[in-house]
Design brief:
67 residues, single chain, mainly alpha
């Protein structure tokens, strides 16, 4: 899968890289599990509350003022 979808980058495409980088930095599996759960909760929130599917969530949408 390409990390560039048109002119907007999909936010969740980078999650796997983020989790792998945490392992390289020797973060505990419990910490990584907590981050994964939080990201899944965030994804679910955007889906339920804002009707955004994972492939629709771009960095433009993930701001301090979620609309």
């Amino acid at each position: 899968m390409s990390k560039n979808k048109g002119s907007k980058c999909n936010f969740f495409i980078y999650v796997k890289d983020f989790i792998n980088d945490m392992r390289v930095e020797l973060k505990s599996e419990k910490t990584i599990g907590t981050y994964r759960a939080s990201l899944n909760d965030f994804r679910n929130y955007l889906s339920v509350q804002h009707g955004k599917k994972v492939d629709m969530i771009t960095f433009d949408y993930v701001t301090e003022n979620v609309k």
